[in-house]
Amino acid sequence: MTKIFISYRRADSRKDAGRIYDRLVESFGKDNVFKDVDSIPMGMDFRGVLREAVAKCDVQLVIIGKVWLSVADEHGQRRLDNPGDFVRIEVETALQRDSCTVIPVLVDNAAMPAADDLPLDLRELAFKNATVVRDDPDFHTDVTRIIRSLGAPVASPARPVAFNALEAISRFYGLFEEENWDAARALLVEIRASGKAPKVFNLDQHEQEIWDAMLAEEREAEYDVLRLMAQRANTAGVWDALQVFWQSYPDYDPDQLVRFKPAAPPLLSKVLTSAGGLTSKRAPQQPKSPPRVQKADSTATIRAVIGDPFEWCAVPAGEFLYGEDKRKLTLPTFQIAKYPITYQQFEAFVAAKDGFADSRWWQGLAGGKPIAPGKQAWKIADHPRENVSWYDAIAFCRWLSFKVGGGTALEKVNEWALRLPTEFEWERAARGTDGREYPYGNTFDATQCNTKESGNNKTTPVTAYPAGESPVGALDMCGNVWEWCLTDYGKPAADAAGEVLSSDNARVVRGGSWSVIQGSARAAYRDYGAPLLRFNISGFRVFAWLPIS
């Protein structure tokens, strides 16, 4: 029997997905139709659980409503652009499987998304032949067409010949009054399948009423929990819970719990405000002088703290071509790490008494205190550290700045300027000055980087692709792991202007990873992630201004 996975966005098409699910279950059986992956065990990687569920299916129906493409998160960024978005993971996994048929199902008069409007890994969806499911009275006719196309006869289940429609309708109203929605739905399916429903009994209207009542009841039950939380002192918990609630019920907030949104912490600006100058011929700005850095052999000191491999790559000052449109920008001299931070190097941070667990490095980040480190997918010393959030990377840089500075007071840590690179600095180091497509040239070469085309299906040692080095000598700037940048995705110019950057804004990731195709690993390609998210495709490298002699 055909196994079917229904992918949908709760804020977009929950009711339509539920009604389609009911019809598919009637024809294919409950064990062969999957809609919600709710029972993800604690501590399990939800991405793996989702991918495993999709892998069991022969067909994926992608339910697309009017806001499927545009639903945004609490940062105002499209959910679909987030590599950790459930819908993106589901669809991406199905598209990667040759044995899975992916069918876009357009509901609520939605249009099919254009390829250019989709993340690169989902663009194949735009070329799949879509089907339309219209509103009532055509809804069930359209779903019947889908069922038949999937190879199931649309036949009524066995039932007594003498079906008493009047008695069934009477029982239905009783169940409706009792608010026994599941039983009422099941009986309504039975009445419809009998073919004996009187014309005055509007099956579609009653089905809509059931779903409206179910969704309103679920919404109120969850919001009641938020009301209870609001009576307690933990206001940060209320705000976090409200973000989760809004994923299913966007903007519903009758008690104005939005008032619990925390203010951006001031400390973050002291440590994270970019000190570098950035000039553009489109928007001229005066470059700022880099902060003074103590004279020291920082390479040797860093190696003593976190071990090898570690080297600096010097990046000369001057003009370079930036972005898809190759506009001219200018940066001062800086240096960037030759390699991403490895698993072994990050473990030095985790194991140190004054390292990961020290709250000093977490001031203004993720509630102001460390949470447990992410679980490394491949615990190999010279592989890049993955499953690190942007917060983890910032905390590491603060700690390493402190260690290299010989125990400099925290408020002076920024004078060392060991931090994440901005996306401008990252692209300059990856691309050189000639606007090339990849660090090693303009033509993609799977033998010089670790992307999906390389066939590794996991991370590789940070020294594995010496021929893929960038013009300044940096490795792994194409593939292996996405690299967190300091830059605010929605306000990239904030770094150049020296503006205060809020800690909860989405951050830029660059370079692609082992799981993406070549287009996402281009030097000019930018993506983003929420700062708290961790993935086994994301890591980071460090940046510094050149020491002054």
Give a description of the structure:
The protein is an alpha/beta fold and 549 residues long. It has 3 domains: 4-155, Toll/interleukin-1 receptor homology (TIR) domain (Rossmann fold, 3-Layer(aba) Sandwich); 207-260; 268-544, paralog of FGE (formylglycine-generating enzyme) (Alpha-Beta Complex). The protein is 32% helix and 11% strand. It has helices spanning 10-28, 46-55, 86-96, 139-149, 165-177, 181-194, 203-230, 235-248, 267-272, 298-306, 343-351, 390-404, 423-431, 493-497, and strands spanning 4-7, 33-34, 59-64, 101-107, 131-133, 279-280, 312-315, 318-322, 327-331, 334-337, 482-488, 507-510, 526-529, 538-539, 543-544. The strands form 4 sheets. Strands 2-1-3-4-5 form a 5-stranded parallel β-sheet, sandwiched between helices. A 4-stranded mixed β-sheet has the order 13-12-11-14. Strands 6-9-8 form a 3-stranded antiparallel β-sheet, covered by helices on one side. A hairpin with a 4-residue loop joins strand 8 and strand 9. Helix 1 (10-28) packs across helix 4, helix 2 crosses helix 3 (86-96) and helix 7 (203-230) runs antiparallel to helix 8. The chain is elongated. Mean pLDDT is 82; it is low at 156-160, 264-296 and 496-500.
In short:
The protein has helices at residues 10-28, 46-55, 86-96, 139-149, 165-177, 181-194, 203-230, 235-248, 267-272, 298-306, 343-351, 390-404, 423-431, 493-497; strands spanning 4-7, 33-34, 59-64, 101-107, 131-133, 279-280, 312-315, 318-322, 327-331, 334-337, 482-488, 507-510, 526-529, 538-539, 543-544. The chain has 549 residues and is α/β, with parallel strands linked by helices.
